[in-house]
Amino acid sequence: MPTDPPPPISAVAFDMDGLIFDTEALFFRVAGELLAARGKAFTSEMMTAMIGRPAAVTGPTLVAMAGLDEPPEAIMAEARRRFDALVDTAIHPMPGLFSLLGRLEEQGIPRAVATSTRRAYALRLLGNHGLIEHFAFVLGGDEVTRGKPDPEIYETAASRLGVDPSTLLVLEDSPAGVASARAAGAYVVAIPHDHSPAPGLAAAHLLADRLDDPRVLALLDG
């Protein structure tokens, strides 16, 4: 794991799926049901290949790895329908989120969301949980040209926050997201979970146990 010393942190960018909310567990369930209806099984390897990436990548990946003969657009549209039917009641904020947001607000550190998912969907989830007001803006995957692991989304987030990327703390949970933030020059903290285990996140500067891990909070005091 990289051992670069942390820089002074002037802003924080949050990924959303699997980082702010436990949506990855719901997607794993939905994808499993979708493939089971076709006599196929959704695997951890498929999840690893898809997590943190934009829909333009995840659809073809799922079709290829599952050996389906349906158009990726149709498969992902069905996945979204299944997901949307459950998302308002089946997801929850991740542990430590409110503690971290409270600390950031106390210290006046600006915050944004930079997610591979569609902006409208991100606003829906954040709005359902009263979280939109905690962030300066939400940057969706449909608002950039190149999705994660390309650095564009975090470079854009840093620019909109008015900070140099080297002083941006990025909180991530996927290998693609970690690669994106590292390429942008940000300081990256990754938080592993069941669907994105620690070995795939080794390029992060720090692996934390949860969002309000004392090591994360200590970065804000630098």
UniProtKB/TrEMBL annotation:
Keywords linked to the UniProt accession: Hydrolase
Protein name: Phosphorylated carbohydrates phosphatase
Coiled coil location: none
Class of enzymatic activity (EC top level): hydrolase
Pfam families cross-referenced by the UniProt entry: HAD_2
Single GO molecular function: hydrolase activity
UniProt-listed SUPFAM superfamilies: HAD-like
EC code: 3.1.3.-
Protein species of origin: Tautonia plasticadhaerens
Top-rank taxon, per record: Bacteria
